[in-house]
Amino acid sequence: MSKAKKVIEEAKEIQNPELDLCDKGILSFEELPGLFNMFNITRLTLSHNKIRDVPAGLANLVNLEILNLFNNYIEELPLSLSSLPKLRILNIGMNRLNNLPRGFGAFPCLEVLDLTYNNLSELSLPGNFFMLETLRALYLGDNDFEVIPSQIGQLKNLQILVLRDNDLVRIPKEIGELHRLRELHLQANRLTVLPPEIGNLDFMSEKSELKLYLNPWVAPIADQLQAGIPRLMDYLRSETYKFVYNRHINANEPDPPKTFDKSKKLSRNRQSS
After folding, report:
1. Are 99 and 75 in contact (CB under 8 A)?
2. What angle (nearest 5°) sits at the alpha carbon of residue 88, between those of residues 57 and 157?
3. Does the global pTM surpass 0.85?
4. Which of 27, 45, 75, 164 is 20 to 30 A away from residue 6, measured at CA?
5. Which of these, 150, 155, 207, lies nearest to 182 by C-alpha position?
6. d(Cα 58, Cα 182) in Å, to the nearest integer?
7. Rounded to an integer, what distance in angstroms lies between the CA atom of residue 160 and that of residue 112?
8. Model confidence over 60-84: pLDDT tens digits?
9. Which helix or strand (DSSP H or E) is residue 249 part of?
């Protein structure tokens, strides 16, 4: 009996609602017989395997609250996934996703979505993506975004937004409407300016984080950053900065060049053994 089958049999025997199949060398859900009939499962961990395809039958697990598919070879997700009625935490980081399925924004109570280290961009998001109004944390780091759609302002409950290590050249002013935001990670992009509306947010407490390094900022922002985040936030709220920002936008200067070659990312080249 394989390691995975043994874990499943033991879980069935004691009616364990948490199934940990991390790093079991799993290539396919076909190696997990009976999984889709385990309706009591609330947590399913399948991280660090070699899974390529996620079958629609996963949506049978109607009591699932936490699904961890981190570090697999997944290229697409089934439409049915967003019908999981109780799913709160979904981790699909470190995979090969180029797109998200139509209707992906229909999760009724998703709070944490981790899509770190895939091949996603603004063109990958379905039309209803920003209807995920229950989201508290959204991790989009290490992808291929150049812009973030203005609809991000609809995610009113968002407290953590991670956009580091993309190709961002613009941040929408609507991020300034996310009044519960306490962490904003924008490091390692191609940003030169920030919308003044970022000044509406509160990054002054010890528990808050605003990360901005490794961007080609215009000189006024770079200068204020050297004095610290509180000084920068004051500057973003000033009439002086609004003038600087509008002048920069109206100048239509070319975007900074890409500085990282992403063609060799594991998410694009990795082969299963």
Report:
1. no
2. 140
3. yes
4. 75
5. 207
6. 33
7. 9
8. 999 999 999 999 999 999 999 999 9
9. helix 239-250
